[in-house]
Design goal:
Strand order of the largest sheet: 6-4-5-10
Number of domains: 2
Order of helices and strands: HEEEEEHEEEHEEEEHEEEHEE
Structural class: alpha+beta
Distance between the termini: 34 Å
Radius of gyration: 25 Å
Shape: elongated
Strand content: 25-35%
Length: 334
């Protein structure tokens, strides 16, 4: 999410939208022509039987074979194997692309190269959203990419290789990132590695795409910014607010430019909201603060969640919904 990386630099806070992909390669050697082994990250499922583990502790994976209920264990059929062998870790890559202005994501798995997986999702994202698409995660081998969405509709992504001692690590870390930086976090989807045949033909495309159907819904943004250093007296106690725009880069550039032009100072992001509202509050000491809310109806609950301890009670000064187009200067003097 390029827009949030820019916000991070501007705010100089520890809001992290960066995504870390860790790569790992293991190898599975089939031992039976009748039952080719493959890694089954979540253990045996319908029509499968777990026969052991592979890997080096603590990074180990269940190994399964295909079984047919009531079938006799035959050797090989006319094609050479009754249960074709698959290995999602032999030469398999998965990737996910996102765009800051939508909750939609584009995922593709079972690619022979990382470049192929990344190009597939970036091209699909660009076809739907235009410029501004970026990679959220790339994973080699057996792994997961977890996508978490906060109450405002912003997505938070984490891709990790599978670990037998922490099989839901990607989900857990994605939830932690969201919870540390936002609110109302829920798991949207957890993508798993695809399967590539052990005897994969380089000319064959084994990949699987999971793309959004229909038109991607765009967020509507609101941002507040302030001068980074004390401005002239007439601009002290002021905040610059923009809202009602679906292009976050343009909205941020517009409000930062206005703040810089008025104050003569470099400006930084104070707060932002997607699809909801920005709430200006003052705590018991009279200090101003901005709170993001998912919608106008949940403002009081959000303020109660944010305002605690010595800050209580907090007073709501104004509510600015993200949908209303505006570019204005707001008085936030203590």
């Amino acid at each position: 999410m390029q827009i949030f990386q820019k916000i991070k630099a501007l705010r100089k806070h520890a809001i992290s939208f960066s995504i870390c992909a860790i790569f790992i390669a293991l190898f599975v050697t089939p031992t039976s022509p009748a039952y080719a082994q493959y890694v089954c990250p979540n253990g045996a499922g319908p029509g499968e039987k777990q026969i052991g583990m592979t890997g080096v502790p603590p990074v180990q994976y269940p190994v399964c074979v295909r079984v047919d209920a009531g079938a006799v264990e035959s050797e090989e059929d006319d094609s050479g194997s009754k249960w074709p062998g698959y290995s999602p870790i032999a030469a398999s890559f998965m990737a996910l692309a996102y765009h800051s202005d939508t909750s939609s994501v584009w995922e593709s798995s079972a690619h022979m190269t990382a470049e192929s997986a990344e190009r597939r999702v970036l091209d699909a994202c660009a076809a739907a959203m235009g410029e501004g698409c970026a990679l959220g995660a790339t994973v080699k081998g057996v792994g997961h990419i977890a996508v978490v969405r906060d109450a405002m509709g912003i997505t938070w992504v984490k891709g990790l290789p599978f670990r037998s001692d922490d099989p839901r690590a990607a989900k857990r870390e994605a939830m932690e990132i969201c919870a540390n930086n936002s609110f109302g976090c829920v798991l949207l989807r957890e993508f798993e590695s695809g399967l590539v045949p052990l005897d994969a033909d380089g000319a064959v495309d084994y990949s699987e795409n999971i793309f959004p159907t229909g038109e991607a819904r765009r967020h509507i943004w609101a941002f507040t910014v302030r001068p980074e250093t004390p401005p002239a007296m007439q601009w002290q106690g002021k905040a610059w607010l923009v809202s009602g725009q679906q292009n976050s880069e343009q909205a941020l550039s517009q409000v930062l430019g206005k703040c810089r032009q008025d104050s003569g100072k470099e400006c930084v992001v104070e707060a932002f909201a997607a699809n909801g509202a920005l709430v200006h509050i003052k705590n018991s000491k009279g200090h101003s603060q901005w709170v993001s809310s998912a919608d106008s109806g949940s403002v009081k609950a959000r303020v109660s969640a944010v305002c605690s301890g010595a800050d209580m009670p907090c007073r709501i000064v104004a509510v600015y919904d993200a949908a209303t187009p505006r570019l204005e200067v707001v008085d936030v003097a203590d």
